[in-house]
Structures are given as C-alpha cells and as structure tokens.
Amino acid sequence: MTIKHYLQFTDLTADEYAYLFTRAALIKKKFKAYEKHHTLADRTLAMIFEKASTRTRVSFEAGMYQLGGSVVHLTTGDSQLGRSEPIEDSAKVISRMTDLVMIRTYGQDKINSFAANSRVPVINGLTNEFHPCQIMADLFTFIEHRGLTAHPLECLKGKVVAWVGDGNNMANTWLQAADMLGFTVHVSTPSGYEVDPAIAGLSNTNCYKVFDNPMQACEGADLVTTDVWTSMGYEAENEARKKAFADWCVDSEMMAMAKPNALFMHCLPAHRGEEVAADVIDGPQSVVWDEAENRMHVQKALMEYLLLGRQ
Ligand code: CP
Ligand code: NVA
Predict the structure, then answer these.
(1) Among 28, 45, 233, 273, which is least packed, fewest CB within 10 Å?
(2) Are both 282 and 173 inside the same structural domain?
(3) What pTM was computed for the model?
(4) Do 190 and 142 have their domain in common?
(5) In this predicted structure, what is the pLDDT of residue 203?
(6) Distance between CA atoms of 83 and 79, rounded to whole angstroms?
(7) How many angstroms is it from 103 CA to the middle of ligand 1?
(8) Domain of 224: which CATH number?
(9) Has residue 162 got a pLDDT over 90?
(10) Is the sign of the CA dihedral 236, 237, 243, 248 positive or negative?
(11) Model confidence over 70-119: pLDDT tens digits?
C-alpha cells in the first residue's frame, strides 16, 4: 500500500482540500459542542521538533488527544537526532512504533529522507521551504469568513492575496496554493529576499505578480498577509534584515489600499512594530486568532484522512 505523506501543499489535490475543509468544519463544530470524535483511538503521533514551536505543538498534541490518540514529543536536544543518528535510521525506528509522524525541521531534503524511510505517513510541520499546515489553516479561515458552502474552494477563485515581506516558507506555500486553487498572490519583498518559483515548483507562474512597492501589492487585495522578517534558522541575518525590511510593515495605510472587506492574517508569532503595526494585527480586519485555532481543526481532519481516508 502506498503511504500518503503531506510534505508540501501539492501533496494533496484541490478535490482533497475541498473534502478536508468540509471535514474540518464538522470536526470544529463537534469540538465546540464537546462531542466526542475518537476516530484515531489507539493511534500514536510522533512529533519531532528541530525548531521551536507553540502553535504547531499545541495544535497537533491537543488535536491528537481529541481524536482519541496519543502523542510522543521529541526534540533534537533530547533525542539521538541531536547526536548525529542518521535521519534515515531515526525514520525506520520511529515509524515502527507509531502510526503517524509530524516533523518541524530545517531543509526539505531532511523531511523527504525521513518520509522515504518511514512506514507511516509523515506531515510537514514547517521546513525552511514550506509550511503547508499553516496555509491549509489560512485558506480554511478565509473560507469560513466568507461563508462555508458545499463548494468550499469556490470563494478562492480569482481572489488576490497580498504577501508583504520575506520570500520564505510561507510565501512559497502560498504560491503553491494559488497555482492549484486559482487565485493570485501579489508578492512584495525587499530586494535580495525574493520568492524563487523553482522552490515552489509552479506549473504556472501567472499565479503570482511581483511588486517593488508593498502598497501597490496590497491594492485591491482580498487578504493581506505577512510573516516575521527573520525566520527560524536565519537569526544570524537579523540585523541586516531589520534594515532591509523597514518599509515592509503592514500598517493601516497599506490595509487601506486593499478591499474594504479585506482580511489580515499572520501565521504568528508576530513582532508588532516590525512586520505588522499593532493597530492592524489587533484591529477589526485581523483574523489571526481564528487562523491559529484553525490549525488544530484542519490538522485533525488531515491526520484522520492520512490514516483512514475519507470518512
Ligand atoms: N505558526 C506557527 O507554526 O507557529 P509555531 O511556530 O508557534 O508553531
Ligand atoms: N517563517 C517563519 C514561520 C514561523 C511559524 C519561520 O520559519 O520561522
């Protein structure tokens, strides 16, 4: 039997996303009503963190318990991964004792090697290149705010998402989503921090447009989104990035360029006064708390799907 991994956004089809969003809505409704939903009873999720996390850890761990399963939490520092045990050997061992693995690590090559040696599905909980679980949650949040229908992907078609900031893992994943689901990303990054369409492996580079000026990128946008100037693993570049990114702060003037009903998203953690002004992230167009909560609901649907298929 082929194992279904979720290593990047393109590992699922549009049809599978439509199913997952509908399922996530049901799972969320049951969670809010304190209704039991133990579809993964007796299953174990291994979570491997080579970088820090709040949301990813809590959403996967709480989510797995709510599905009736259990979790094992590993970090580089407290496992043999930090003492040079090869990733391939770790994958062979961990996947003989658990049913599902979530990894947050550095290079995508590392998670690919783990998956190639795993007997069970592997989920990308963030790499330098991609953050697919976050984009799944962001799309679900957008759909929820526009009104979930029997065709959840319809409201994404033709929409404009403004990406303001670093051409990073989040930006690459937004490009993959736009390519698949039929919307456009207006990307504005400082020079030297551009997105690289080769990383996203796009079938169609018309799914994004590059703007030197972030104000112009926001013009007419349905969603404005940003992320930290310095991602995990790039801390040595922090001072240079602070200078380069100074004009890439999403403030109320930028939001005013977008559509009046535009939403603001940020995967968090956020730095108020750097990539986003406090009155934007804490203002009426911001949906960042729904976005964070939805990580758990979509990932519950994802874990269930990878192990059990459509329910
Ligand atoms: N957005 C996100 O992945 O947050 P954490 O780094 O806290 O997991
Ligand atoms: N781009 C950020 C996202 C954190 C959730 C990072 O990789 O650190």
Answers:
(1) 273
(2) yes
(3) 0.98
(4) yes
(5) 87
(6) 8
(7) 12
(8) 3.40.50.1370
(9) yes
(10) negative
(11) 999 999 999 999 999 999 999 999 999 999 999 999 999 999 999 999 99
